C-alpha cells in the first residue's frame, strides 16, 4: 500500500516490517520496533483502536499476527526505518 507525503508530492511506498504469515510475541514486537514492552501492551489495551492480539492458550502468552501489526503500523504511519 502507498500513501502520499503531505509535504511533497512524493508517493511513499509502505514497507512490511513483519512477516504476514507469522505470529509475534510482545517482546519480539518491542525489540523489532525498538520500544519498551509496556508500549506494546498499551497498544493492545487501547480502548478506541487496539492492536489485535490473542492468547496462545488460557492464560498463555499474548501474540499478534504479522498482518495485523503491519496494518496497525500503516494506520498510524509508524516508520521506524526513518528514525
From TrEMBL:
Domain of life the protein comes from: Bacteria
Domain Helix-turn-helix: 24-75
Pfam family, one: HTH_17
Official protein name in the record: Helix-turn-helix domain-containing protein
Source organism of this protein record: Cloacimonas acidaminovorans (strain Evry)
Lineage: Bacteria, Pseudomonadati, Candidatus Cloacimonadota, Candidatus Cloacimonadia, Candidatus Cloacimonadales
Amino acid at each position: 500500500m502507498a500513501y502520499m507525503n503531505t509535504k511533497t508530492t512524493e508517493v511513499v511506498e509502505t514497507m512490511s516490517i513483519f512477516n504476514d504469515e507469522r505470529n509475534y510475541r510482545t517482546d519480539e514486537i518491542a525489540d523489532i520496533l525498538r520500544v519498551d514492552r509496556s508500549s506494546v501492551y498499551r497498544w493492545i489495551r487501547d480502548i478506541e483502536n487496539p492492536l489485535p492480539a490473542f492468547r496462545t492458550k488460557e492464560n498463555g502468552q499474548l501474540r499478534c499476527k504479522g498482518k495485523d501489526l503491519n496494518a496497525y503500523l500503516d494506520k498510524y504511519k509508524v516508520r521506524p526505518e526513518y528514525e
